[in-house]
Design brief:
- With 489 residues, the protein is mostly helical.
- The chain is 60% helix and 5% strand.
- The protein has 21 helices and five strands.
- The longest helix has 27 residues.
């Protein structure tokens, strides 16, 4: 068999493995509450409303909303299977880029292993890891930026670095990697020129993005919600008990379950003095990626997708660089496969929205079914709490720009509920939205204590309390969730 044919067969086998690993993502409509946030906002955007305004508010950059909105326009509103197909396509494309980097560094086998490891890493975890989220989409342009950096294409590397930042702000940590790349890859005489080209790429992309947001009428809102809210978001998540609770469900199993790949990557890093410059940059990439992953303190497992690309590359380099006995390779393969298969079986059957809830588990499908059956497609709904999944599952539009409240906050901790989405300027906008689009139903999930919201009843928030008291009456209680309908004239 010729070498190109062998490579093609291995590539096909890896592609099939990655596809099978991600099959559980197609077994559920929603894989994470974040998908519901992005989907509900994208649906408002497709009505012509402005992102970061009446078209939906979130603290994420616009890229994820553009992707969701475009997908819904092509496949249908709230068509989450199409969203998951887009996510899988992005993973496949990122695998290809990692293959190219690995091939350039140490040969075809390294590239193939890097692609395989990334495909497995992004699937071997809790159901929320499988979601089409900001980190997953960010990794495609971010990996392309690293590939072009290693090839000393500084202009395009800078452009793609900003493109990655259009999905998640922490892509900016790769500026440190780019600077290290300039210092190590460029002769002293050309470093300033390389830095200038990198800067031109970054500035050009920033100006282009700002122009797009300006033309869409979203620039001021973007600054308010994705830049101005960053400190508030981070300050409410860096609470010791909250961080540890998150870490137990994210970084700890991420490291333990994929300990084989971590051992391999660390083995490469210990050979720092003997590593070629480009392989050192992979180690640096892994370091800055871990910093980016934990920067916000939220520590969800999918945050570490940012580190999975360089981790896959570093581990692949280990299997290429170090002579390993056959039994060691077999043990390593088993150590990777067992947790991956275990998570695959769990993710296939678990409810991604409630798998980690303590009883009683929210019966969100029942509440969504009630909403769907007691409203028409043109009517809007308002959900009090942090359950945007009800909008998606009921196929109904949000009545306000806010898909939820106290998101990312340590709810139930006893801390004052001063969050980025409960600041003083939120409530006039909420009142304006509810006046413009009177909800056909108001759904109070705090009454049922869903997502630790019982400490934040509607009665504590004058805008919502006044609306319910003056215009609505209770019509049903489903699984403890109290539902209100408008008073008859």
């Amino acid at each position: 068999m010729t070498r190109p044919r062998q490579i093609g067969l291995w590539a096909a086998l890896i592609a099939m493995t990655v596809f099978v690993a991600h099959l559980p993502s197609f077994a559920h409509r929603l894989l994470d509450g974040d998908e519901a946030v992005y989907g509900s906002i994208a649906t408002l955007m497709n009505t012509g409303a402005q992102l970061y305004g009446p078209g939906g508010v979130d603290n994420k950059p616009p890229g994820i909303f553009w992707v969701y909105a475009a997908t819904f326009q092509a496949a249908g509103t709230y068509q989450m299977t199409a969203i998951h197909a887009v996510g899988l396509a992005v993973i496949a494309a990122t695998c290809v880029l990692l293959f190219m980097i690995g091939r350039d560094l140490a040969g075809v086998r390294t590239g193939l292993l890097a692609a395989l490891f990334y495909g497995i890493l992004t699937a071997a975890g809790n159901p929320r890891l499988l979601a089409t989220n900001t980190e997953l989409l960010m990794m495609l342009p971010l990996t392309a930026s690293v590939l072009l950096m290693l090839r000393r294409r500084w202009l395009w590397s800078g452009l793609l670095l900003v493109a990655a930042g259009a999905f998640r702000q922490v892509a900016a940590v790769n500026i440190l990697l780019a600077i290290a790349g300039i210092v190590w890859l460029e002769p002293r005489s050309s470093r300033w020129r390389a830095l200038a080209w990198l800067s031109v790429g970054i500035v050009a992309a920033l100006l282009g993005g700002a122009l797009i947001l300006l033309l869409a009428g979203s620039l001021s809102g973007f600054w308010r919600w994705t830049v101005g809210s960053l400190y508030g978001y981070a300050s409410t998540t860096w609470v010791s008990s909250y961080v540890w609770e998150r870490a137990k469900d994210s970084i700890v199993p991420f490291v333990v379950d994929m300990i084989v790949l971590w051992i391999a990557a660390i083995a490469v890093a210990t050979q720092w003095r003997n590593l070629p410059i480009k392989e050192r940059l992979v180690v640096v990439w892994l370091g800055v990626a871990m910093v980016g992953s934990i920067a916000a303190g939220h520590l969800s497992w999918h945050y570490f997708i940012q580190a999975m690309g360089p981790l896959a590359l570093a581990a692949a380099l280990c299997f290429e660089r170090f002579p390993l006995r056959r039994w060691v390779v077999s043990a390593a393969a088993l150590g990777i496969a067992v947790p991956a298969v275990g998570w695959w079986a769990f993710d296939l059957s678990a409810d991604p929205l409630t798998y980690d809830f303590s009883p009683p588990v929210p019966q969100h499908q029942s509440v969504a079914a009630y909403i769907h059956d007691h409203t028409t497609p043109g009517q809007r709904v308002f959900v009090w709490g942090n359950w945007p999944a009800l909008y998606v599952e009921s196929d109904r539009l949000m009545a306000s720009r806010f898909p939820g409240f106290l998101r990312g906050f340590a709810r139930g901790s006893g801390l004052p509920p001063d969050n980025w989405d409960t600041t003083a300027d939120v409530w006039p906008e909420l009142r304006s939205d509810l006046d413009a689009h009177p909800p056909a139903l108001i759904v109070d999930t705090a009454a049922a204590g869903w997502s630790d919201f019982s400490m934040y009843p509607m009665s504590n928030y004058p805008v919502v309390a006044a609306l319910v008291a003056s215009r609505y009456h209770e019509v049903a209680t489903v699984d403890g969730v109290v539902i209100y309908a408008p008073n008859t004239p």
